[in-house]
Amino acid sequence: MKYNDDKNNVLKAIFFMWLFMFLYGLFALTSCKTAEDHLQKFYKKGGKIECNVDTIKVIDTLLIDGDTVYKVRDSIVIRTETNIQTRYQVKFDHKRFKDSLSHEKSVYKLDLRALKDRNKYLIDSLNKVRQIEGKRYETELKKAKAEKKSSVFWTWIGKRWWLFLIIGFAIRQFLPLIIKLLKHKI
Question: With a threshold of 0.70, does the pTM exceed it?
């Protein structure tokens, strides 16, 4: 009996091994995706495929009745380089770009802050100069107004100097004549 039990156990083990291999093969064959599905999954995870392609065209030149006719005979496509990046490489490139962009952003903010501080300093300096000049202008204006109030008569005379000059010359010329006339009448 022992021999039969060992034989039955071996047959059972072989049967289960074949059953397991059959189920595993069936699972492997039915769970495979197409290449397009794998490519779409690759793109979804951030992968990139870059192909640099050069095309060479062989052109025949024919002369028919004096006209030139160009005919493309053959095109050859040469792939010089295919670069496949994994999602980790793409992620690293994005991170590096983001880091450099944030660095440029912080440098720009610092430059802007320094420019604001400089402009604020210049505006404050300009306002102080305006205040000083304004006070100086006000004091000069007050002095001028005070002078103008005290010498209204002299400013009126100063504006008409030419009239007094003409009157003075006329009196000098005609005064001896007027004196002679007055002496004759007396």
Answer: no
